[in-house]
TrEMBL record:
Residues 313-395 form the Alpha galactosidase A C-terminal domain. GO terms for molecular function: alpha-galactosidase activity. The keyword Disulfide bond applies. This is Alpha-galactosidase. It comes from Scleropages formosus (Asian bonytongue). One of its GO terms (biological process) is glycolipid catabolic process. Belongs to the glycosyl hydrolase 27 family.
Length: 432
């Protein structure tokens, strides 16, 4: 009796506890094809940019040769339009033979040889959003097995062409099927984005138990309007979303579009800063072969990355929305440190915003401040001392702050980079 009870508890806990794949304890980082390269399948006329194995190999070369991998950008993720229009004779998905002549397994090996990981895209439904074969409920196990056999490391499971009932069944089933393969495969669920992203349709406790990350909201486009629209939705709903995130389970406001055509340098810094505050996955969707030096500097900013990757994994919040159009965001970090972002929605000129740490809820004391984009340091800022930051229109000022007496704080010391790389180089732990 006692032993059968214990057995039941064991089985129950194995199936109901937090997604137990041990993956993505910090927000995943890498590159994802969709926003920049969409469903360009015209390899005849646009061979450099079409969705093909060459595009993913090119990006892998850049990630491994241009310093990205060491910063934590290790996933190279395929999105829609990779597959053939037909499953094979045994009902398995297969890559388009012309655009992926080496097959996905070889592409995965290419990534692993370079200390990178490969992500793939599927869709719970009859078709993918782009009209390619989908994963209906009866195909979940087959597809999970196929991806594992190929050596895939992450799956984005989209939700076009399925209804709420199918999604409620299918997303947990895929989670179980991936776990059952025995291969660690990070699992990104688009489920909430298809059901309004909010309770009661969406239960974030359940999501945290079955997925490593999830798209909550609509697709990002290459414009500042699109970034603002996403930020507004996430902040309006932060009371629901913020507690849902934690190590191994992340809200996903969608890709970084820095380096493309829609954002100014200030707006690019704003996207990077706000994604770091939100503990968002950092998937760049840009052409790493032609990236400008300004965009590269923003995407490779070590301080912002380490704020994003903070091991506590607590998502930040918007603290204030001033009448002036200034908004203040805050995220708690390891060792009593924190990050602050001062964001301007103004459209006139740099705005001089004056406040104190005390009025931003900081406890009494003195603090060290590191401005992550300018590199400026302020050593002894008391909570009651007024300070002024100058924030550009649609730009940010971002601070890393820690108590002055915090001896172990590494940000302002010369070994900062060593500490940082030990935190953000998980690829070193699992070279494949
Ligand atoms: C949906 C997703 C996007 C992308 C496309 C592909 O719109 O939200 O991120 O995957 O499908 O067709």
């Amino acid at each position: 009796m006692t032993s059968s009870l214990a057995f039941c508890v064991l089985v129950l806990s194995a199936t109901t506890l937090a997604l137990d794949n041990g993956l993505m304890r910090m927000p995943p980082m890498g590159w994802l094809a969709w926003e920049r390269f969409r469903c360009d399948i015209d390899c005849k006329n646009d061979s450099k940019n079409c969705i093909s194995e060459n595009l993913f190999k090119d990006m892998a070369d850049r990630l491994s040769e241009d310093g990205w991998r060491e910063l934590g950008y290790i996933y190279v993720n395929i999105d829609d339009c990779w597959s053939s229009m037909q499953r094979d004779s045994q009902g398995r998905l297969q890559a388009d033979p012309d655009r992926f002549p080496g097959g996905i397994q070889n592409l995965a090996r290419y990534m692993h040889d370079r200390g990178l990981k490969l992500g793939i895209y599927g869709d719970l439904g009859t078709h993918t959003c782009g009209g390619y074969p989908g994963t209906t409920l009866d195909k979940i196990e087959t597809d999970a097995k196929t991806f594992a056999e190929w050596g895939v490391d992450m799956l984005k499971l989209d939700g076009c062409y399925s209804n709420a009932t199918e999604q409620e069944k299918g997303y947990p089933l895929m989670s179980q099927a991936l776990n059952a393969t025995g291969r660690p495969i990070g699992y990104s669920c688009s489920w909430p984005a298809y059901q309004g992203g909010l309770p009661p349709s969406i239960n974030y406790t359940v999501l945290g138990q079955i997925c490593n990350l999830w798209r909550n909201y609509g697709d990002i486009q290459d414009s500042w309007d699109s970034v603002l629209n996403i930020v507004d939705w996430f902040m309006t709903n932060q009371d629901v979303l913020q507690p849902a995130a934690g190590p191994g389970r992340w809200n996903d406001p969608d890709m970084l579009i820095i380096g493309n055509f829609g954002l100014s340098v200030d707006q690019s810094r704003s996207q990077m800063a706000l994604w770091a505050i939100m503990a968002a996955p950092l998937f760049m969707s840009t052409d790493l072969r032609t990236l400008s030096s300004e965009a590269r500097a923003i995407l490779q900013n070590k301080a912002v990355i380490s704020i994003n990757q903070d091991p506590l994994g607590i998502q930040g919040r918007r603290l204030l929305k001033e009448k002036s159009g200034i908004e203040v965001f805050w995220r708690p970090l390891l060792q009593s440190a924190s990050a602050l972002v001062f964001f301007s929605r103004r459209t006139d000129m740099p705005y001089r915003y004056t406040t104190t740490l005390a009025s931003l809820n900081y406890t009494a004391g003195t603090y060290k401040v590191y401005d992550v984009f300018s590199g400026q340091v302020m050593k002894n800022l008391s909570d009651t001392t007024a300070f002024t930051v100058s924030i550009n229109p649609s730009g940010v000022v971002m601070w890393y702050i820690s108590p002055s007496e915090n001896e172990t704080d590494t940000f302002l010391q010369s070994d900062f980079h060593c500490t940082l790389s030990s935190v953000i180089s998980p690829y070193l732990i699992h070279p494949r």
